[in-house]
Write a structure and sequence with these properties.
The structure is a single chain. The radius of gyration is 23 Å and the shape is globular. Strand 1 (7-11), helix 1 and strand 2 form a beta-alpha-beta unit. 51% of the residues lie in helices and 12% in strands. It has a domain at 7-121: Response regulator (Rossmann fold, 3-Layer(aba) Sandwich). The two termini are 37 Å apart. Strands 2-1-3-4-5 form a five-stranded parallel beta sheet, with helices on both faces. With 206 residues, the chain is of the alpha/beta class.
């Protein structure tokens, strides 16, 4: 793992706000700023670890920048940081987290740290986190009746349940594998005599 600080791209058309975010994060990360969508496109590269992306920008919106990020195969975690209240259209968007302005320094720093941790996981776990983030933001912004009437939310819930089930299955398999390895190590360390072989068989629990 590189000792270089993680790279964060702040995309925000309000220059004062972009510079404030950069100041909040600058002590820990290599922070770059783009004061609009077109400038963000010019700065996209594989070196970027996290993108903090405003949605409503003149010229090229954050939604369009997000599409470009994913179309180019850039493996960065993306958080929308925006005054646009989330609607059910976010279900199909390829971001990892969604923050509604105004955001605090603690909120922003915690989000970047969380996104960087997610980068260490496999794609299935990353998707689970992204889906869970969408669920959480919709549940905080929408009433129960609206959630129940939404086909998009129903699909999101179904996908969440599928990913959670897959993760539970993987964890069970890892647990069984770990138990087998521990039993094998215990068996390997032993030195049973030939006379006791039949009486001292080890139960692996299989």
């Amino acid at each position: 793992m590189s000792d270089d600080p993680a790279s964060v791209l702040v995309v925000e058309d309000e220059a004062d706000l972009a510079d404030l975010y950069a100041a909040w994060l600058g002590g820990e990360y290599d922070v770059r700023t783009a004061y609009g969508g077109h400038e963000a496109i010019e700065q996209l590269s594989e070196e970027i670890d996290v993108i903090l992306l405003d949605r409503r920008m003149p010229g090229l919106s954050g939604d369009e920048v997000l599409v470009a990020v994913r179309d180019r195969g850039i493996d960065a975690r993306v958080a929308m940081v925006t005054a646009v209240e989330p609607d059910f259209d976010i279900v199909e968007m390829g971001f990892d987290d969604y923050l509604v302005k105004p955001v605090t320094r603690e909120n922003l720093v915690d989000t970047v740290e969380s996104l960087l941790r997610r980068s260490e996981y496999d794609t299935g776990v990353q998707e689970l986190y992204a889906v869970a983030s969408k669920k959480a933001v919709l549940e905080s912004e929408k009433g129960q009746a609206a959630l129940e009437e939404s086909d998009e939310y129903a699909e999101l819930q179904e996908r969440y349940d599928e990913l959670q089930s897959d993760l539970d299955t993987q964890m069970e398999e890892f647990s069984e594998h770990d138990e087998f390895e521990q039993a094998f190590k215990q068996f390997d360390k032993g030195d049973p005599s030939e006379d006791d072989d039949e009486d001292d068989e080890l139960d692996f629990g299989l």
